[in-house]
Amino acid sequence: MHYFTISDLAQEFDVSTRTIRYYEERGLLSPIRTESGQRLYTKKERAKLKLILRGKRFGFSLDEIHEMISLFDEDRTGKKQLEKTVEYGRRKLREVNERIEDLLQLKAEMEALLSDFEQRLRQWEGSDG
């Protein structure tokens, strides 16, 4: 069986070894320990890390990610994990859409304000001459 060291995974996924140890502390990863205490990660643990990092990129909390990963261990078909992932994904998409709406409103307000300021500046410049 092929194992990965913590340094291997940190380099591959461009994260710190501290981040990987933190995920272990949170119960998301379970490396094998050698007699000397070195962490060794299986392909399954590597896949979990990849899922954790993808979940973080999409804005999921570590608790949500932990639940999704744990469901696969409970139901090897992956159906429960997929259902929970879809549920969380829909919620996250709603949050993203709300943020987009907020940002579009902020953009419109900023554009209106900037336009007003530019108009005032032109009026000022016109009265200077």
Automatic annotation (TrEMBL):
One of its GO terms (molecular function) is DNA binding. The keyword Coiled coil applies. SMART domains: HTH_MERR. Keywords: Coiled coil, DNA-binding. Residues 3-71 form the HTH merR-type domain. The keyword Coiled coil applies. This is MerR family DNA-binding transcriptional regulator. Residues 79-127 form a coiled coil.
